[in-house]
Specification:
The complex is a heterodimer of chains A (297) and B (287). Chain A is mainly α. Chain A is built from eleven helices and no strands. The termini of chain A are far apart. The mean pLDDT of chain A is 90. Chain B is an alpha/beta fold and 287 residues long. A six-stranded mixed beta sheet of chain B has the order 6-7-8-3-9-10, with helices on both faces. The longest helix of chain B has 14 residues. The mean pLDDT of chain B is 89. The chains are: A mainly alpha (297), B alpha/beta (287). At the A-B interface, helix 7 and helix 8 of A face helix 4, helix 5 and helix 8 of B.
């Protein structure tokens, strides 16, 4: 006669023994990871809150349109905002053509050989070089060797060098996103490689290139070390007229105000940080909007 | 006529490869009576060390439709892409042997691939209209090739030739991507016609289309064959039987190199294949 007796006690589907221990560990890990996330976000919020609390009182039209001054309550951001606009203008105009040209060469024209591997490796490494190194390079090459002095041109070109690797990599990504079938279609009609790049690849890659460039520019907008290195003036009481003028930028102005002993200047610095943050966040938002817009098409 | 597949005697491709008794090439590969536009003489294609085509020799007649058929991986598409130098874009590609166009070596040193592609156009497997307006899709070819004339007329003529004019005449400024799959493929054909090629290569042009759109493209091909030479890759044997004047059957050997097994006029190839491998393929015993 067959017996269906089970060995041992009644089975259970509840977590016991090793399973219970593993599950407990798993549940705890969720909170540990959440805590790690909150540390980063929390610090950011605290800094933001502190800054706004300290600097919001300084925000006014006059703060944006006044020249710097020895009297903290009369000092403003006029020359540094103008300086930032000038410098970033030079940066964008010089970085985009070089970056796009490099990216097109790498993706569309370069022979797949050791030289290319070396170039790509170099670009990836350059993206990780600290900005102050670019400052030293700018000081040696643009300010001294080319005799540009601590001018807008020297500053803009230094920042252009700094954001080139990022911009090149972003442009490469954008170019790679253009489907190969578009290139085939164009070439099969008797278009040359250049015509294919100019009429199809670049227009297709443009949203990605723009997004990448804007993000890189927003990084350049907050750059301080490299510009201090090349000798960006901190006390400019005139409107910039040409790229050969001395200049200051918003982050350099912030730096200058924070190192003053008087508390009133700290408030100015906090106010300027708010202005800079709003500008940078707007740039990032613009980049996100461009990306979204073209993703839908 | 296509015979029903004989399930009982279905053989694996490997068995077929090992048991095939091969007729001499002169009996399997017919000479054409018309003037040839493309001639291949022991043409070999390589991707790095891999030989994709082995000693392919045959002639393609002018203003006829020639179909290239065969199982997947037999080198049909490679052969087609060699004809307008599109394979130059594959970095590891090289060739041996000769392929001529009107007697001119397509791979001679002084031949410019851009000039070749203007004369030998191509339509791809997946419709690939440019993400631009219908008008701009057609106008691109004439523009880059410096063809002078009334662009609106040229666009209309190309669209009419591709039997697409009536569908799109009121929406020339709409994106080419807004069309249906079949219309997109006809747009790609119209785009190819706009640069006045002599030959149109079609790489499985209907494989992404539904049966109705497929029939429309096939009708269009018959119409175009009055003025153009068409070479079409297809793995749909019925399609080859329906549209092609001549058919080439390719198959890969055990080393996976593709070879031309049989070439001849379509009716003969499908009703009285000379080679056992051709017969097995068209009756569905493998592939």
């Amino acid at each position: 006669m067959a017996s269906y007796e089970t060995a041992g006690p009644q089975p259970t589907l509840r977590a016991t023994g090793a399973v219970a221990r593993r599950q407990a560990f798993s549940r705890v890990s969720r909170y540990v990871l959440l805590a790690a996330t909150l540390i980063g976000v929390g610090v950011l919020f605290y800094l933001g809150f502190e800054t706004v609390q300290k600097g919001a009182g300084r925000l006014s039209w006059g703060f944006l349109t006044s020249y710097p001054s020895r009297a903290a309550e009369r000092a403003g951001l006029r020359s540094s905002i103008l300086g930032s606009v000038w410098v970033l203008g030079v940066t964008v105009l010089s970085a985009i053509p070089i970056a796009v040209g490099t990216a097109v060469w790498i993706e569309e024209f370069a022979p797949r050989n050791r030289l290319l591997t070396l170039v790509k490796l170099n670009i990836a490494n350059l993206a990780g070089v600290p900005s102050i190194i670019y400052g030293i390079l700018g000081l040696a090459v643009f300010v001294r060797y080319l005799g540009l002095g601590p001018s807008i041109l020297a500053g803009g070109l230094t920042l252009a060098l700094m954001i080139l690797p990022m911009t090149i990599i972003a442009s490469q990504e954008a170019i790679r996103q253009v489907p190969p079938s578009i290139r085939d279609g164009s070439l099969a009609l008797g278009a040359t490689q250049w015509q294919t790049v100019w009429r199809h690849v670049l227009p297709g890659a443009m949203p990605g290139i723009m997004t990448g460039t804007i993000l890189a520019v927003s990084r350049a907008a907050g750059e301080t070390a490299a510009l201090i290195m090349i000798g960006a003036f901190t006390f400019i009481a005139f409107d910039n007229q040409s790229v050969f003028d001395d200049f200051t930028t918003v982050p350099v102005q912030i730096y200058n105000w924070t190192i003053r002993p008087q508390e009133a200047f700290r408030e100015n610095a906090a106010g300027a940080i708010i202005v800079l943050m709003v500008a940078v966040l707007s740039l990032n938002l613009a980049a996100a909007l461009i990306r979204e817009r073209f993703r839908q098409d | 006529m296509i015979r029903a597949p004989d399930r009982v005697t279905r053989v694996t491709i490997e068995e077929r490869l090992t048991t095939a008794e091969t007729l001499p090439a002169s009996e399997r590969i017919s000479r054409i009576s018309e003037p040839p536009i493309i001639e291949l003489d022991r043409f070999n294609a390589f991707y790095g060390d891999f030989r994709a085509l082995l000693d392919v020799s045959f002639q393609i007649p002018e203003r006829k439709i020639t179909a290239l058929i065969g199982p997947s991986g037999c080198g049909k598409t490679t052969l087609l892409r060699c004809m307008n130098r599109m394979n130059d874009l594959v970095r590891t590609f090289r060739h041996e042997g000769r392929m001529t166009y009107h007697g001119l070596d397509l791979y001679a040193r002084d031949v410019d691939p851009v000039e070749v592609r203007r004369r030998i156009g191509m339509v791809f497997q997946k419709p690939n209209p440019f993400p631009k307006s219908i008008f701009e899709n057609i106008a691109f070819g004439p523009r880059v090739n410096g063809i002078k004339g009334n662009m609106a007329e040229m666009v209309e003529q190309s669209l009419r030739q591709a039997a697409l004019w009536d569908d799109v005449k009121d929406k020339l400024n709409q994106s080419g991507l807004a069309l249906s799959g079949g219309q997109q493929q006809r747009l790609c054909i119209a785009r190819a016609l706009a640069v006045h090629p002599e030959i149109i290569l079609m790489d499985e042009p209907c494989s992404a289309l539904d049966p109705i759109a497929t029939l429309k493209i096939e009708d269009l091909m018959r119409e175009l064959a009055k003025d153009y030479t068409i070479i079409i890759v297809t793995h749909n044997m019925q399609q080859a039987a329906r549209v092609a004047d001549y058919t080439a059957f390719l198959m890969m050997r055990q080393d996976r190199a593709g070879e031309l097994v049989e070439f001849g006029d379509t009716d003969t190839l499908f009703t009285m294949p000379k080679d056992k491998r051709t017969e097995d393929y068209i009756t569905g015993r493998f592939g």
